[in-house]
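Reopening this ticket.

The earlier resolution said the output was attached, but the attachment link was broken on my side. Pasting everything inline this time so it's all in one place.
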Amino acid sequence: MRFLFFLVGSVLLQATVLAQRFGGNPASQRWRQLATDTVRVIYAPGLDSQAQRAVSLVHRLAAHDSFRLGKRIKPIDIVLQHRSVISNAYVQLGPFRSEWMLMPDLNNFSSGAMGWSDLLTLHEYRHVEQLNNMNSGLSKFAGILFGQQGYDLAINAAVPNWFFEGDATWQESVLSAQGRGRLPQFLNAYPALWQAGKKYSWLKLRNGSYKDVVPNHYELGYLLVNYGVATYGESFWPTVIKRAVSYSSLLYPFQQALAKTANSSFAQFRNNAFSWYRTKQRAAEPVVPSWLLKTQTRYATDLQYPYQVGADSFVIQKSSRIHRPGFYLVTNKKEHLLRTRDISLDQPFGYRNGKLVYAAYEKDARWGWVSYSSLRIVDVHSGKQQRLTRRTRYFTPDIAPALDKVIAVKVTDSGRASLDLLSSATGSLLSSYASPSGYLYTDPKFLSDTMVVTAARNQQGAMALLQLSLRSGQEELLTPFLPFSLGYLHPFEGSIFFTAGFLGNDHVYCYRLADRTLWQVADGNIGKYNVHATTEDLYWSEPTAEGLQIRVSAKENHRWKPVSIDSLHSVSPYEVAGTKENDLSFLSHFIATQNSFDTVPSARYKKSTGLLNVHSWRPDYQDPVFRFALFGENVLNTLQTELAYEYNENERSHTLGASTTYGGWFPQFTLGSNYTFERSAVVRGVRRAWSQLDTRLGVSIPLQDVRGRVYRSLDVGSYYVLRNDLYKGAYRDTLGTVNFSYLLHSIRFSLEAQRALQHVFPRWGVNMSLLGQHSVSSFAGRQFNGTATIYLPGLSHRHHLVLQGAWQERDTLGQLSFGNRLAYSRGYTGRYFSRMWKTGVNYHFPLWLPDVGVA
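Inline output:
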């Protein structure tokens, strides 16, 4: 029984969602709300239109009869986070809420041209529907026993993560023309493996790899979910999920539920799914490809964005399982590192005449929901970098032919998008261009000093190629708006080379400005990205089983095919299982009719709303203490609370405690108190009995930021601790109440370089911790602890040299002891001397990367 308490408590603790940011918004942030019986959207003033659109689309989805996992609708709180440059969202339990980062994904091939908030609604509300309709059987019982975190643990133990994300991706695809299930880049993941003859085990496909390219659980999940609908119909997955979460089989509940529903084993089901997709795969190209660099087969490597520097040299971006992203100069098939790239979210960069420009990630030190994307210029010849802007929101930049200007996409925290023209010397704004038609520009490239070409998205989720005059601001459409991905533009000698998904895959096209004609240049069964043209050759990045590789192909080897722009209107996107004629236009119909919905009244959302929000409770056992605690957290994630009861088997004492931390201000405040009943101990042969009250009050300032190529953090805090011993019996009159107090001061600092996947530790870094404790009462006592760890590179990219040091010093009076905190060297037992120190040298390297697992 004790082991059961320990196991349940430990696993529930691990199940806590890590995507949230405690106290992530500035104290000055104000909030509004749109509340209905289905959803409450919490948003910043000025985002009313996005909030109203989200509420309307959620209601339309909740009323939609097709593809339902169930009919339960439990209201959810959705917080729109507008100040982050990260494009993401999540739904969680403990507490039940969702947070959407409103920065649109500017990669036109990874998420398409659908409006970002619409995509989040279609995808994330499917997760809400999943959580609402898995409340059955043992999963429901777990929720009763342990609250939301217990329910979360139960359903995640029963249902694999690939189903959660695959099912949500399937919904975004079946209800729109631009979901990821219709995008070639998303669907190319498995064909790249099959074309290379890779036959990975199911466990490797399920769990991923530290060495090889393995599609993630979104791609795996969509493949299996889509096949299930296509083969067994719409009711298949609701039946499987209901049986799984009810634990009709305690061992492998999901696999057993699927086998019972499909009348075949899970292994047979997934094998049939892979075979079904392989029959739809296009034949491989008969030509043996030529690569810019020799393919690395020991670990996956991505080579992207080739730009010609000289007659036989190129600048590219390279990253791998053992290399951090960096800019490399390639000459005669030999590579040379120019500079490790600053930590970045936005991958594309622009290059001309020895200068490259890219966007780097920056973060506010205190507020986790506030981040930036700022511009850097690198001199290819010297490797020196110029920090062009700071604390800005610029993306996908390009540099002018004269090297005097930079153009970049700007997306403000209110959602307004524009193209900004900046001075390459100072970063000052020269002019700004916002589309009068409301288009979202992406991938801008200079045609000349006064003209740019850009991909454009409209509000209906379609894309076009567009030319923009920097003198007049006039837009000219070069291609019509179509529901296909388009991007990675490269102007060359009066033509624009680009990638687009017009004809079933992401192929290379050329638009000739002179005669306004469109040509298909390169096709095939695998997508082609980051195209770059020279006088004789074409270069592009192509997905392979070893990662993205840069392919070289002579122009003369391609049969350029003219493409009728008018004919593209009749091309259909990829089919999605379960699609019906009226459902394909679900999102389009919503966009066309949204104004007919009643507007939800807006009201102020007070930060004090639901501060005490108990969501979970769980037992724990650490010999000799049994513990049961209630956990709470508000929707805005500014207050965390805990109420606990403890029973000590040895002392037979009972303790009640409460603690809370508030993170809504610049410093975070912590307050807690524990009251222990009927403690007793034998002192000098006589038993003493007392009750004990422990109270603590603390303040801390947690700072974390990203600067250049390193992550930095600094946490400074001070805590006041007061203990009162309330003696009873014979000692009540002699000792009465004895109290003492002390202060604890801490400083923690870390500086760590970005890691590649196989880096166990950072290549460069330092961690330091200083802790001082001293009495502020009649009992004298003090203690100081200091630790430091330095990370250095080893003999290879996967080796690490780690230097450690620690120091501990305390007073010798012996009136008040703070406990021994020194980490001893391996093989030594603990001693508690007044002064101790430790040094250590460790060398770490991997012995084996087996790529095995369980599922």
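Reporter confirms the inline version is readable. The chain has four domains: 27-132, 134-281, 290-570, 665-844. The domain at 290-570 is CATH 2.130.10.120 (Methylamine Dehydrogenase; Chain H).
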